[in-house]
Inverse folding.
């Protein structure tokens, strides 16, 4: 059986991560590209064997696109980007630039910012990652001080992902980086982001009602 | 001016990271695929503006391939993989599987294991990332207990990268994961890995001689 594009997320999540669950990245990309897509869910509690088969770490999102299934939000974004010039221009040099910046967001920024955030939230004294985070964010600030978009003088999925990495409230409130702040502001004002985030918030609010919690 | 495939690394690094600097990933992939390639260097000390133009975080490796330049080892691996069936089969489902596992290595495993390692090395008491690392490594162990290769029942660049992430000595020595250990053992016995690592070690040893330190 083959369906169209389906973004899989949790049926419900606690209040804290709402608006930040990574399915928002895929919703946002799909909205920018104008794809038809559907959102389906897998239980947040009691994660099934079938869930682990599709997402080996028991997380979301994962994507089904016809006969293709894949997880990892960064991988899903690259998969979507190959289907739309809006998300990624197709000249070899520009495609390489998008690939570089998507992986930079995942493996040079988020590799420090997410564990730093985790340590902040779990109440570590003397967060041992702060110096490293500051250095990584400073390099991004240098780049964004010099240009409006990361690649190809236009919006690409690399900007979408970097903005999603930088907009985490604790990261955004940490330090003073005017170019990064203006970048996040600009990207998260896009109608496609606003719709994606609002759709996610509505989805989880409806789940509260279904659980009798609202 | 357009050249062939060039892997850029540092001219020299201290003893500690030798054998682990991420240019080894690209050397390994190029050896597996049988690509002609050349290794060139950028100074480890006094990193130039030109270095930051090619690698915005001042790190290595980066790659030049004709008119294309890109950084981030994960992005470089995906770029190389698209040029060789040895590294990535080309059916849509298998290609998606490779993409998923490459990003999983970068953003689900390394996003925890590298900061954990950083905190260990910098002497944090009560490493606040240990529980999270254990959980991520346990999920990988579950997958590797069940199959020899991550994707497509054969070697791909996803195995190469996951093995490179898991072979970090501190990570490898932490906990007991027989399937992961056997996977790392198997992957790092491949002639292409051994040549890549030896070439890197020789490169840095020669740099010691040039600096008068050997």
């Amino acid at each position: 059986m083959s369906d169209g594009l389906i973004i899989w997320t949790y049926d419900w999540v606690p209040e804290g991560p709402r608006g930040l669950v990574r399915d928002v990245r895929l919703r946002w990309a799909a909205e920018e590209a104008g794809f038809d897509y559907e959102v389906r869910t897998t239980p947040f509690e009691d994660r099934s064997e079938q869930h682990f088969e599709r997402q080996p770490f028991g997380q979301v999102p994962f994507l089904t696109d016809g006969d293709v299934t894949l997880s990892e939000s960064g991988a899903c974004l690259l998969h979507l980007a190959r289907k739309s010039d809006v998300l990624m221009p197709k000249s070899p040099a520009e495609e390489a630039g998008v690939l570089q910046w998507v992986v930079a967001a995942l493996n040079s920024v988020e590799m420090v910012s997410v564990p730093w955030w985790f340590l902040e939230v779990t109440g570590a004294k003397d967060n041992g990652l702060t110096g490293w985070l500051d250095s990584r964010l400073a390099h991004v600030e240098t780049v964004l001080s010099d240009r409006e978009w990361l690649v190809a003088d236009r919006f690409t999925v690399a900007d979408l992902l970097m903005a999603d990495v930088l907009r985490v409230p604790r990261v955004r409130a940490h330090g003073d980086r005017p170019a990064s702040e203006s970048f996040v502001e600009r990207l998260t004002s896009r109608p496609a982001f606003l719709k994606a985030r609002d759709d996610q918030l509505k989805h989880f609010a409806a789940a509260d009602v279904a659980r009798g919690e609202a």
Q: What stands out?
A: Chain B touches chain A through 46 residues (CB under 8 Å). The CA atoms of residues 29 and 80 of chain B lie 8 Å apart.
